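Action item from last meeting closed. Structure (209 res):
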């Protein structure tokens, strides 16, 4: 994945061989804590949706690399013990990889599985980059009416709508707000979730949920 600071990305991955990556409510909630820990330090989330066998995130990247605390080491001196904090850099790419590995280990341990859970290579597409946009998921879903003259605004809106319509398209629910595991309920005012930045999202999209 390649990220640039200040741009919006659609990030997604699905289960290896189309297997389910969330088997119960606890799995969904646990993955949301992972997103909070590993994605929010780098980006604001404008929309999200977790499906039984895949996930979608729409994020505005604030940092592509940050310094994190890698723990403390203790240095023993004659009279005192000094503690030195170790800092190291972590990229958003690395953080995503760590997040998925960590979730996979916990998921496999919980359900008695082994092996890869997600597909190799999480996908990301910039939806408002000035050097071009590659919205392959729009084409896959049959969305062809794109206003290329104003793609900076058009693509974020299509991405936002697409993410929230996923459960409806999969016939899991009749309306986006009926699906618990997306940000649709937050934008509709039915839940006060802390993961999505609603006020920031409204600077880029119109909300009609």
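Sequence:
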């Amino acid at each position: 994945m390649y990220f640039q600071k200040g741009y919006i990305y659609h990030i997604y991955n699905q289960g290896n061989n189309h297997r389910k990556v969330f088997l119960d409510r606890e799995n969904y909630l646990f993955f949301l804590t992972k997103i909070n820990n590993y994605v929010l330090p780098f980006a604001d989330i404008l929309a999200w949706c977790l499906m039984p066998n895949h996930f979608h995130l729409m994020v505005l990247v604030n940092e592509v690399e940050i310094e994190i605390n890698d723990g403390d080491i203790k240095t023993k001196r004659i009279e005192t013990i000094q503690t030195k904090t170790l800092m190291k850099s972590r990229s958003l790419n690395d953080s995503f990889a760590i997040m998925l590995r960590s979730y996979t280990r916990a998921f496999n341990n919980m359900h008695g599985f082994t092996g890869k859970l997600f597909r190799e290579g999480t996908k990301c597409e910039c939806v408002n980059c000035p050097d071009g946009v590659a919205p392959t998921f729009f084409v896959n879903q049959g969305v062809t009416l794109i206003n290329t003259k104003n793609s900076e605004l058009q693509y974020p809106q299509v991405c936002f709508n697409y993410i929230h319509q996923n459960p409806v398209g999969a016939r899991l629910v009749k309306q986006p707000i009926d699906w618990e595991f997306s940000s649709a309920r937050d934008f509709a005012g039915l839940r006060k979730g802390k993961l999505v930045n609603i006020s920031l999202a409204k600077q880029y999209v119109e909300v009609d949920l």
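Note appended to the action item: The first helix runs from residue 25 to 38.
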